[in-house]
Amino acid sequence: MAESCAATTRAQALTSARELSIGGLMIALGLLVPWLFHFAGPQVATVFLPMFLPVLMCGLLTRPAVAATVGLVTPLLSSALSGMPPSPLCFLMAFELCALGAAASFAYRRARLPLLLAVVVAMLAARAIVAVEIVTIAPLLGVKQHLWAYVVLQYLGSWPGLVLQLTVVPGAVRAIEKLGVLASPVRAPAERQP
């Protein structure tokens, strides 16, 4: 019995260390990938949403708390280090990416939705947060934009980024799962029915 408790504790510690490592890697990618996109031009990042990719991937590979933290920290750290996204947009993005990561993790790892459906749920959750921000927080920060104009511009202007989120991220997660790179399952095994 004591051996089984020790083994469980070790497994949990390894899982936590693995998830924190993934979180750190995704924060680093969340800083690096947008920077690379900015070389192609200042508006390229708003079209391809490069910071969203590592946060979404983190959500599919880690627990909701880790994914939410990565989503919250990445835009704030990026803004502090590079000035992009600019303030106050970085605060709005922090909440949006926090929701993206947490929703992806919950949908894929807890609710056990199919991968692509979990990505769609996460994208919708993030957009719902943006809608709430536009109505409530944005006016307090001096951002004046009509909700419908923002939503339409977000989807029309960033459709290449949405396509990347629906293709590149699920493909990378599938490859990671298939190769067993993480040495433990991304999703916990389904509970057995008696």
The counted number of beta strands is 0
The proportion of residues in beta strands is under 5%
Which parts are unreliable, with pLDDT below 50 for 5 consecutive residues or more? none
Number of DSSP helical runs:
9
The oligomeric state of the chains shown is: single chain
Listing every helix as H and every strand as E from the N terminus to the C terminus, the arrangement reads HHHHHHHHH
What does the main sheet amount to? none
The structural domain count equals: 1
User: What structural class do helix, strand and pairing data support?
Assistant: mainly alpha
Provide the residue-averaged pLDDT: 87
Instruction: Please report the distance between the alpha carbons of the first and last residues.
Output: 23 Å
The CATH class is: Mainly Alpha
What's the CATH architecture? Orthogonal Bundle
Helix content: over 70%
C-alpha geometry: elongated
What does this protein structure show overall?
This protein is mainly alpha-helical and 194 residues long. It has one domain (19-179): Arp2/3 complex 21 kDa subunit ARPC3, CATH 1.10.1760. Helices cover 77% and strands 0% of the residues. It contains nine helices and no strands. α3 (52-61) runs parallel beside α5, α3 (52-61) packs parallel to α9 and α6 crosses α9 (159-179). The model has no long low-confidence stretch (mean pLDDT 87).
